[in-house]
Design a protein that fits this description.
elongated; 4-stranded antiparallel β-sheet; about 25% strand; 2 domains; alpha+beta; Surface presentation of antigens (SPOA); about 120 residues; about 25% helix
């Protein structure tokens, strides 16, 4: 099973390293048929605003209006994780009255694929 994942990761890396126009999207006809199988797999995307540690006592004493101080400073980049793996950093934006993230720094393709192994 591990060899299959390594092979798939190597193929994915090879596909993503092909020169592309930055604005162009990947077309189905340009993708290895073996990789097409994984393109529709759902992934959990998490954006982290910051972290903190607190005791159980402090946790149960929280009430409406309480403020939890986080480790990051205001204006620092948010971290974007896919299945608990860091893939990018960005800044908060508002899109149609909902929060979103504008990506400002994407972890290199090679580093992202290496995290799969």
């Amino acid at each position: 099973m591990s060899n299959n994942l390594d092979d798939l990761a190597d193929k994915l890396l090879a596909e993503t390293e092909k020169p592309k126009n930055k604005e162009a999207k990947i077309e189905d006809k340009d993708i290895d048929p073996n990789l097409k199988m994984i393109l529709d797999i759902p992934l959990r995307v998490t954006v982290e605003l910051g972290r903190t540690k607190m005791s159980v006592r402090d946790l149960v004493n929280l009430g409406q209006g309480a403020v939890i101080e986080l480790s990051k400073l205001a204006g620092e980049p948010l971290e974007v994780f896919v299945n608990d793996k860091l893939i990018a950093r960005g800044e908060a934006v508002v899109v149609n009255e909902k929060f979103g993230v504008r990506l400002t720094d994407i972890i290199s393709t090679k580093e992202r694929v290496e995290q799969l192994k």
